[in-house]
Design goal:
alpha/beta, ten-stranded mixed β-sheet, 302 residues, Rossmann fold
């Protein structure tokens, strides 16, 4: 798997940018990556911004390119000297511009923040980037208590990796294993057996004797998970199989295990949409309570 060489970090000059940039810096130091900060002039108004980044006059009106560039220069000055960094300003449709820039760099990781707003425009921006990005997308939430997925000397990071056995899901698992080797994560590998799958199996079986019980399905999937774990990670990967609805179980298990990050294939959200409404699948992203690292299938195997 190719290492993370370039990290693209869009900033909207809101307080959450401090955490967003801090995480991007940690990743760049870990992988020796280049950091690219990006601001789009068409981004939604940040409201109450950091005083040292944006004055009231600019926040209340239009953000001219010269002022945005000046703010980005101030951000670059505050970055550690050992991080190679640059910045750029764009104007236009936010999602399309970011996707274009991501491909032009090219970026190996997009680190972005979601503010948890309920407006349709904001939600669709995060979703379009997650669904259309060709590189992994690490999404933070506007929550000061949210932990970082980068390990600290005094604490190991717990990471949840759900998989549904699809090709994209398996590639995301492999990507997570590679990250674990570099970041020294402890991975909690999860498969959720859908209640609907159990019901369909029992109904479609020729007889009750040939139908698999939920217990048998759980045991079979647990054995498959065990077989995925590489020998060198045996001490740092735990396997779980749960029965229930995928989106609810992913959130439930992440909270029960108190994980600091979820790594999942972008395909997983498409799968969920076959079972749930658009609003419920979007809620999974915002309810996670920790950063979510989305891996696109076409990039995960790189």
């Amino acid at each position: 798997m190719a290492m993370i060489k370039t990290v693209l970090c869009p900033v909207d000059f809101t307080p959450v940018c401090e955490r967003e940039i801090a995480l991007a810096i940690d990743l760049c130091r870990t992988f020796g990556s280049r950091l690219v900060l990006h601001h789009n002039l068409e981004a939604p108004s940040p409201g109450m911004a950091m005083a040292w980044m944006w004055n009231q006059e600019n926040a209340a009106g239009q953000r001219p390119q010269a002022d945005a560039e000046a703010t980005l220069r101030e951000l670059l000055k505050k970055l550690p000297a050992d991080v190679q960094a640059e910045a750029c300003v764009s104007d236009g449709q936010v999602a399309s511009t970011l996707l274009y820039l991501e491909r032009q760099l090219p970026a190996d990781l997009l680190v972005m923040a979601t503010h948890g707003r309920s407006t349709e425009d904001h939600s669709s921006l995060a979703e379009r980037l997650i669904e259309r990005s060709t590189c992994p997308v690490l999404v933070l939430h506007d929550c000061e208590s949210e932990a970082s997925p980068i390990p600290k000397p005094e604490k190991r990071v717990e990471v949840l990796v759900p998989t549904d056995w699809s090709e994209g899901g398996m590639q995301a698992v492999e990507y997570a294993f590679e990250l674990a080797r570099t970041l020294h994560w402890r991975i909690h590998l999860l498969h959720v057996v859908s209640v609907g799958d159990v019901t369909r199996t029992e109904v479609s079986a020729p007889s009750m004797m040939s139908a698999k019980s939920p217990g048998e399905m759980l045991a079979e999937n647990r054995a498959r998970l065990d077989d995925l774990v590489p020998q060198d990670l045996r001490e740092r990967v735990l396997c779980y199989v749960e029965l229930g609805e995928p989106s609810e179980k992913i959130v439930e298990v992440s909270r029960r295990l108190e994980v600091e990050c979820i790594v999942m294939g972008m395909h997983a959200r498409s799968l969920l949409r076959r079972f749930f409404t658009h609003d419920t699948s979007r809620e999974l992203l915002h309810r996670a309570g920790c950063p979510v690292w989305f891996i696109p299938g076409e990039k995960a195997a790189a």
